[in-house]
Design goal:
heterodimer; A: alpha/beta; six-stranded mixed beta sheet; four-stranded antiparallel beta sheet; 7 helices; 10 strands; 32% helix; globular; B: alpha+beta; Alpha-Beta Plaits; 8% strand; elongated
Chain lengths: 233, 283
């Protein structure tokens, strides 16, 4: 599924963002990535969808290695990943329907298959009645649902979500989180970065906690911090 | 491909002002280049007109028979550099002198002026060296008394032509470079305006080729449109000059028009390929 082997990432300007990270996300699993801002959560996600390549170590996603993947292989891999962001990243000049259809068009899906799949995906996120609405006509929670529908429409094996509730009020947060749980319940793995500890505490999903670029806690391992508290500073 | 065409047209509709501005930028860049081209071909045309007057005149010794002169004229006409020859008898020479130099018509008496063979040269053989070589060869004919071709005038004309040619190439390259830079910057602006769309395309799994395609089509269309507008501007400029300055200018022939439009299309296409390729390398 998603595997990190001793992965470090160093950016030229900001220095080390991730240090020696090793973990594996299993099929159908739901895992939180938590930690303060700058802990390395987004770096892990960017490495998981190959937007960045590791400085050291290796990332393997669905058998594709970060050490060998070509740009075309990465493009094809992303068709099997769903990616969701805090800022939704919708095209403002296209309707909800067109935004979701866009994800199918760019990968050459047959024309007659696009409309039913878009309807199904938007129905799945509860926006079947707002297909023609433009992003500016939708609330933050609804926009994030459109983004999730776009991520789901290609039936991904994993959904990678970077602070998907970060811009939402509490009610919308609960709705989007429930949606992600439903998606996971139907078999899609979810790797979600968040610093909303309420969400994390509310469930018993696996939690990978990060601090200063290191994985300091992974409930899938020992259930205890992997570094002693004095090492965290 | 259908989606690429749709997206290219959508980009025109979505940002009409930016599209019109980029078409106009391409048009004005090509217009400047076309105006220069128009001046260049008119100068070349004028110089060719003057060059057509490059001629060698071989004066014949008195007493040479008409048959011998005709045979020599035919032989000279077979030289590779020669376009044609004309035999001028003594009587014709006198008549021509009286016509061309009217005020001295009484000075010329019959039999004073010699017969001659006038030799016209092919285009490409009107440079000083070729003219000199042909003249020297003609001078070896036994009954040729003297050979004249205005050596100094031909040398000056050739120099002028070389200067005009070199200036034309240098200015042409400069104009073309400026046009390519301006057009490249314009296309880069349109790529940057759609950076968000490109980012989303890549995130949902579009290949670089798919991302590139609508930009290439858009660049091609803008190039063709810019070329058509530039051509219209150039035609208007030439027509205005002709009308108000009474200047008999020649305009581009169909081959040059096609070349110009194809040039605009190629600049638009490759400018887009370069701009979007550069952008994709950075993201």
């Amino acid at each position: 599924m998603i595997q990190f082997f001793n992965v470090s990432k160093e950016y030229p300007r900001t220095g080390l963002a991730l240090i020696d990270a090793t973990f594996r996300l299993h099929k159908g699993e739901f895992a939180f990535l938590t930690g303060p801002s700058g802990a390395g959560k987004s770096t892990i996600l960017r490495l998981a969808y190959f937007e960045d390549r590791p400085t050291r170590g290796e990332v393997r996603v669905s058998g594709i290695s970060s050490n060998e993947a070509s740009r075309t292989e990465i493009a094809k891999l992303r068709r099997k990943l769903g990616i969701v962001f805090q800022d939704f990243r919708l095209l403002e000049d296209r309707s909800a329907e067109a935004n979701v259809a866009f994800a199918l068009e760019v990968i050459g899906t047959r024309r007659d298959q696009i409309a039913p799949r878009v309807q199904r995906a938007l129905g799945q996120v509860g926006l079947g009645s707002k297909m023609k609405s433009f992003p500016r006509e939708l609330s933050g929670g609804e926009q994030q649902r459109v983004a999730i529908a776009r991520a789901l429409v290609n039936d991904p094996f994993v959904l990678v979500a970077d602070e998907p509730t970060g811009n939402l009020d509490e009610r919308a947060t609960r709705g989007v989180f429930q949606l992600l749980r439903d998606i996971n319940a139907s078999g899609t793995a979810v790797l979600m970065a968040t610093h909303n500890l309420d969400l994390v505490r509310r469930t018993d999903y696996r939690t990978i906690e990060m601090d200063h670029g290191r994985i300091v806690y992974d409930t899938a391992d020992t259930g205890r911090p992997v570094l002693a508290p004095e090492e965290l500073t | 491909m259908r989606i690429a065409f749709r997206d290219a047209l959508f980009a025109f509709r979505k940002a009409p002002l930016l599209s019109v501005l980029s078409v106009l930028t391409i048009a004005f860049s090509l217009f400047a280049f076309a105006l220069f081209g128009l001046v260049a071909i008119n100068i070349r045309n004028a110089l060719e007109g003057v060059e057509e007057r490059v001629e060698i005149r071989a004066f014949i010794t008195d007493g040479t028979s008409t048959e011998e002169i005709a045979a020599a004229a035919s032989e000279i006409a077979r030289y590779a550099e020669v376009q044609g020859t004309t035999v001028i008898t003594q009587a014709q020479a006198l008549e021509r002198a009286r016509r061309e130099l009217g005020e001295f018509r009484d000075v010329f008496e019959e039999g004073v002026l010699p017969a001659s063979i006038d030799v016209r040269l092919r285009p490409g053989a009107r440079d000083p060296r070729s003219v000199r070589a042909v003249a020297s060869r003609i001078a070896t004919i036994t009954f040729v008394d003297d050979v004249r071709y205005g050596e100094e005038w031909i040398t000056q004309l050739h120099k002028l032509r070389n200067i005009a040619g070199a200036t034309g190439i240098a200015l042409g390259l400069a104009f073309a470079t400026v046009a390519v830079i301006i057009i490249g910057a314009t296309i880069r602006m349109t790529v940057l305006a759609r950076a968000r769309e490109i980012m989303i395309m890549r995130l949902v799994g579009a290949t670089d080729g798919f991302v590139r395609r609508p930009f290439l089509i858009e660049g091609f269309m803008k190039g063709v449109l810019g070329g058509v507008v530039a051509l219209a501007f150039t035609w208007l400029a030439a027509a205005t000059l002709q009308r108000y300055l009474n200047f008999d200018a020649i305009f581009f022939d169909s081959r040059l028009v096609t070349f110009g439009l194809a040039g605009g299309a190629l600049i638009g296409f490759f400018g887009s390929a370069f701009a979007v390729g550069r952008h994709l390398k950075q993201v």
